[in-house]
Design goal:
Alpha-Beta Plaits; 8 helices; binds magnesium ion; EC 4.1.2.13; carbohydrate metabolism; EC 3.1.3.11; hydrolase; magnesium
């Protein structure tokens, strides 16, 4: 039977401010999943920044009511602890009072895939804080379509055919499938606009799932877009898929993503070890963690802290230099996001104040 790997995440309260998760919330999440372990084969609870990450294996398929309900109830239970401790933004990602069967569009983010476990199944789970799902477009392109990143595309007969990208139009609630290598120029027209078009998943040319992200089309709840925050992504690796090192390599050169302070700034995405996943400088900069697992009969052997490698130290240094350069701009674009992408805006208030101040020139 097929195995499902589900990564479901939410921010239900930060410690301190929006910087990390209190140990008592992690303990509660583990207790809650443990008390319901008959639904699961295995689970792991991690945190990155202010987000709790539930990593679960089971046999119920993607979008399972039971699994989404379990994740929702776990986050609810953690919210009780967050409220008792008066943690910051307690329950902030649980945007609805009652659960309706699928966690998508309710605040939490989810990346799930169902597959036949291979003879050996090495997977990487990428988790980012202080950014949005568009952050995965460039690294996924490099992993699966750029031979300067992934030499396997050139010299491994199993990868030489290329891959299929599923791209979502976040605003129009539509999707399109594009093939690499033949459609890459078309693909790049879309995914270069990472606020609008996001890669949801990548398949082999034979239709086998290889990568999936928590990208979802935008829902407008409680006065804000949801499905936009702090994305996660699962990548299966090796033996016809990108090698572990090919999947990690795009992050060796930090690219610029939207997020950081008040979700309203362009910023480098810095690869860090699990221990360094506590963004504090200007509430960031955005960072990404990679948890490696060998899946064995559904059990999660891991995590291995893949960006702990000192070979990513230079990426961290470079990311910090980019951060310094952007920070010099303060409230100016292109550090601060354009008006229509700001998560916080005082523009209506300021415009109203100067309503009569604006005169024909
Ligand atoms: C970014 C983030 C933080 C907050 C900032 C202000 O995604 O979560 O940068 O936006 O700390 O937070 P509030 O408005 O809660 O005071
Ligand atoms: Mg928060
Ligand atoms: Mg967060």
């Amino acid at each position: 039977s097929k195995l499902t790997l589900s990564v479901i995440k939410a921010d239900v309260g930060g410690f301190v401010g929006h910087s990390s998760v209190h140990q008592k919330l992690l303990d509660r999440a583990r207790e809650y999943l443990d008390a319901n372990k008959e639904l699961l084969i295995d689970f792991n609870v991690l945190s990155v920044g202010d987000d709790i990450q539930l990593i679960m294996t089971h046999e119920k398929g993607v979008d399972s009511d039971a699994i989404h309900q379990l994740a929702w109830d776990t986050f609810k239970s953690c919210t009780e602890v967050a409220k008792e401790l008066k943690l910051y933004g307690a329950g902030q990602d649980l945007l609805k009072d009652t659960f309706s069967g699928n966690i998508k569009g309710m605040g939490p983010g989810a990346a799930e895939m169902e597959f036949e476990e291979r003879a050996s199944e090495p997977v990487l789970i990428f988790m980012a804080d202080k950014t949005e799902p568009g952050a995965w477009n460039l690294p996924l392109y490099k992993m699966f379509a750029d031979p300067f990143n992934t030499i396997g595309l050139v010299i491994d007969p199993k990868m030489h055919k290329g891959f299929v990208f599923e791209v979502l139009d976040l605003k129009e609630h539509k999707k399109v499938y594009l093939n690499s290598p033949e459609d890459i120029y078309d693909l790049l027209v879309f995914i270069g606009s990472h606020g609008r078009y996001c890669i949801k998943s990548v398949y082999t040319r034979d239709g086998e799932i290889v990568a999936v992200s928590s990208t979802q089309t935008m829902n407008y709840i409680a006065g804000r877009y949801v499905g936009k925050d702090d994305p996660v992504m699962i990548v299966r690796t090796q033996n016809g898929f990108p090698a572990v090192g090919e999947a990690l390599e795009p992050f060796a050169n930090p690219h610029i993503v939207a997020g950081w302070m008040r979700g309203s700034h362009n910023a480098p995405l810095i690869p860090v070890s699990i221990k360094q996943a506590m963004p504090t400088r200007f509430d960031g900069p955005p960072r990404v963690v990679a948890a490696g697992y060998q899946i064995c009969n559904g059990k999660l052997l891991g995590p291995q802290d893949m960006f702990g490698d000192m070979a990513f130290d230079r990426a961290r240094q470079k990311g910090l230099e980019i951060a310094d350069i952007l920070r010099q701009l303060g409230p100016f674009e292109p550090h601060r996001l354009p008006l229509d992408e700001l998560e916080y805006t005082s523009m209506p208030m300021v415009l109203e104040k100067f309503e009569k101040g604006f005169i024909e020139e």
